[in-house]
Each structure stands twice: as structure tokens, then as C-alpha cells.
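Weekly structure sync - notes
Attendees: PM, LS, DV (DV joined late)
Agenda: review two folding runs queued last week.

Item 1: First target. Sequence and C-alpha cells pasted below for the record.
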Amino acid sequence: MSGGHSHGHSHGPGSSSPTDHRRRLAIVLVLTSTVLVAEVIGAVISGSLALLADAGHMLTDTAGLVIALIAATLAVRPATAKRTWGYRRAEVLGATLQAAALLAVGTYVLIEGIRRLFEPPEIETTAVLVFGLVGLVANVIGIVILTRGGRSDNVNMRAAFLEVLNDTLGSVAVLAAAGVIALTGWQRADAVASLVIAVLIVPRTVILLRETVSVLLETTPPGLDLDDVRRHLLAVPHVLEVHDLHASQITSGLPVLSAHVVVEDSCFRDGHAPQILDQLQDCLTGHFPVSVDHSTFQLESPAHAAHELAAHQ
């Protein structure tokens, strides 16, 4: 006997619909693309390698936002008989691509920043200050939009926020470096600012990439201790054994769990099995940092072990 049980919500395909973030992502994408064009023009006018490098970061971040928008569009598509969870995993795939791109950019900035410490380029600061300020204003607006729009709702939105944060830090660094160079003539300020950006961005990107890869590898959700879950399930009256216990995430914030639960033979004769399903589900809510709303339990009699496939024993 098997069954999924819930309290007040469906376990059918497509339940727990994702929040639609497409409009906010589209607005931020337009802002980022505009800044990208402006910085390229500014780099040509000023001859600034720093501004051109920041435009390169903007190009990568624009591509990342395009990926985020595509992923968000796929994520809200309805489930089908072939894709029972719809395209919810697209959010994780999109975030993984963005994190990988950001990590590549961060690595490049580290290498290029070190090189510029030894070979600082000449910068025409006036144009850099003007176009850097334009970029900063646009990026701050983008951060406000994403923050109000649930930037922590899923890994895709977190990755998009990191893209815009990266742009903002880049604009601040460009402005700071240009200001220092204008006031002191110290050309290496550009390299120092670039290294600061990399140090701030790379660790966050590694954490995000590790989280998304963990979801793709169907690792147990953070905060859910399966040994503790097993103990709680075994504490339910009439439960004799728990095996084939698995937990993973479809996408961020959507954990799923399944298990084979051996119960006393009498539960199948006296109609007690449905109550056990209720109690098993109750074990997954309120006891752990992660609440599992999507679960499937297969109830088995002790004699069923003789019929189990070797993979389930």
C-alpha cells in the first residue's frame, strides 16, 4: 500500500506553483543592457580599460539575466503527464549557468587585477566618472526591483541578484578608482578595486554553485537529517521498520521525500493504515527545520520483505 498525504494542499502535478518573477527580471535586463551600451560608448570615448572591463562584466551579467528570464518563463509552465513537475528544475539549471559564468568572470578579474598591479593602464577619468555614475544609478534601481520582488524566493532569483550586485560593485569600483586616480594619479587604484570586487563576488558565487549542483545531484535538502527523520517515523505506533528513505529537492524550497514503511499486519485488517499515513506525514511537519509537504509512503507488511527486489533490501 502506498500513499501521499497532505494537509490542505494538493500533491498533484504542478502544485506549489512558483512565483512569477518574469516582469521584474525583464525590467532589470533592460536596465542592465542599457548600461552595457553606455559603458561601451564611454570606454571608446575615454579609452578607459577599466570601463571597458566593467562593460565586459556587464555583458556577462546581461547574458546571465537572459538565462534567468528564460528559466523563470519555463518554471511557470504547467505540469504535464510527461513532465510531472513542469519545468521547475529550470530555475536550478539557470542559476547554475549564471553561477558558472560569474565564477569565470571573478577568476578573470582576479588574474587581470594582479596583472594591472604591475602594468597599470592610463585612464581618462572624467568620462569614466560620468559613465560609471550612470551604471551605478541603474544598478541600484535594479537591486531595489529584485529585492522587492522576492530575490530569495529561489536560486534563480538569487543568481540574478548576484549578477546585478556584481554590476553595482563594478560601478562603485570604477568610480572609486577613477576618483583616486584623478586626485592622486595612482593608476594602480583600478587594479586594487578590481581585486576587491573579485574577493566579494567569488565566495558568494561558489556557495550558490555548490547549492545548485547539490540540488541537481538530488542531495538531501539542507537542514533535513534523514537519521532523525527515520527515528521519528519509527516512533509512530505500529511502525516496525523504515527503509528506502530518500529526500531531495525539485528546486529550491520544494523538498520531496519517499520511504517504504513496514507496519504490523493488523493495520491492514482493521483499517488503521490511513491513520498511520496521517501520523507519518505529521512527523515531517514541525519537527525539522525543513517542512516536507510532498511525501510518498509505501506501507508494507513484514512478509513483504521476501518479495522485495534486491535493490530495495
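Item 2: Second target, run right after the first with the same settings.
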Amino acid sequence: MEKRNANGLTEKEFLAQYNPGDYKRPSVTVDILVLGMNEKLDGLKVLLIRRKDHPFMDCWALAGGFVEYDESTYRAAVRELYEETGLSDIYLEQLYTMSQPYRDPRMRVIDVAYIALIPVVEAHAGSDASEAAWFDVSMTDEEMILKNETLQVEMRYLLEKKVFHNGILQIENYVPKLQSEEALAFDHAEIVMEGLLRIRNKVEYTDIAFNLMPQEFTLPDLQKVYEILLGKTLYKTNFRDKIQDKVVALDKKGISVTGGKKSLLYRYKNRY
């Protein structure tokens, strides 16, 4: 026997008379925070796209765009990343849902942000962007800076500490406050900040850092990447004890980027 609701309708009858247009519906977008190590392994880079149309025309932004009707947000992130940068087959992780009502001046837009981690490669702008470039990005407890010296662009944000209440808990977090003339489009500064905080936390208990390494690497270089992500110096012995079960030694040597000397090469143990 089919179930009927309070109006006496079966599910089939209910769906036949249901009109989605009776309700306001937000659009959905994805944005991708692409992070990689710089060539000297002494800092992180973030891939930014210069917008070629309104809103925020000529401003720098994360790669992203609208989710199509028949795709998931993950598939949309994969598609947009390839369309705007040419990047594919890289690590993607959902980061945050940005849902402030007026975050986009065009309409009500809910954004699902993703993190992508890669070794630094040359950036190429796709059809939806006028330019793509790597920016050095750094963050302390006081400020966040994104800078490209070649383009002579610097975006600086003061990180204002706020306390948020969640049930019986008081949670400390930061709000980025613009301190420079140039700014990231939309609320992308908040996405960058949240992404850097996520990576700093997650590197402690996952193997996420290996996504930033080439297929073959030295242990001094791997340690340097961990130190950059964590924002602190690590003891060599303790670090090697921690990662010894995660790496496989290769029967060859290579030049360490950080030390400039020949060192034994390794690969990530669980690389497929």
C-alpha cells in the first residue's frame, strides 16, 4: 500500500504537482585553492587567476566557477581546475562551504571550496581567465601575505582573532582584514586563510605533505616541506623516526634542494 501525506497524495502525485519555482534557489560555485612549494622549498605558492570580466574584473582570484546541473561539486572542481589552469589528476580535498548571503554581488551564491596540492608547475590561463600566476603566500598569527614580485603585486591581510561560540565551546579563529590596495576577489582571502590553517593541522596526522613532493626526493627536502607547513623547525632524528614507515629508499642519489649536496633518494611508500 502506497503511503500518502496529510493531503492524501502519494509520492508520485506529490512530485507531479511539485513546482520548484515556488522557492528561491541559490546558485552553487566551486573555488580551488591550489598550493605548491616554491623552487627553493622555503615557502608555499598559491595559484591565482586574474578575472577578465565583472564582477571584480582584473582582480586576482582562486580558480573556480559554477557547478553544472548534472555534476557534483567535486566533478565541477576537477573541470574548472582543468579549464582555467590545464591541471588534472591532482590531490583535491573539500575545504569549506562559503555561504554568506551577499558574498557575490550578482546573486545568492553558495560556494564549495577545495584544496589542491601539487609540486609547483608552470601556470597557464585557460579560456575563463585572462592570466594565471603563482604567488608566494605566507601566514603568521598576525598577518597573511600574497606576493608576486615579477608582477609587482602584493596583497596583505591583518588576521584579526575572533571568538566564536559553538554550543558550550568557545572557538578561536581569524578574520582577514585587508591592509593593501590590491585585494583578492570575493571572499577568497578567507578561503586561502582557512586552507593554510587546514594544511597546518592535517600534516600532523596524515600523509598529505607528500602531494607537494616530486616522485623522488631526499629526506632533507621532505623535512623542509614539513617545516614550512607546520611553521616550526623539526629535529632531524625525531622527523626521520616519524616518516620512516612512509618512505622507501631508492638505489640512487640526487642533489638535495635545501642542502645542495648529494643525498639518497626516496619515494612515498603508498604511491600508486
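Discussion on item 2: The first helix runs from residue 11 to 17.
Action: LS to circulate a short write-up before next sync.
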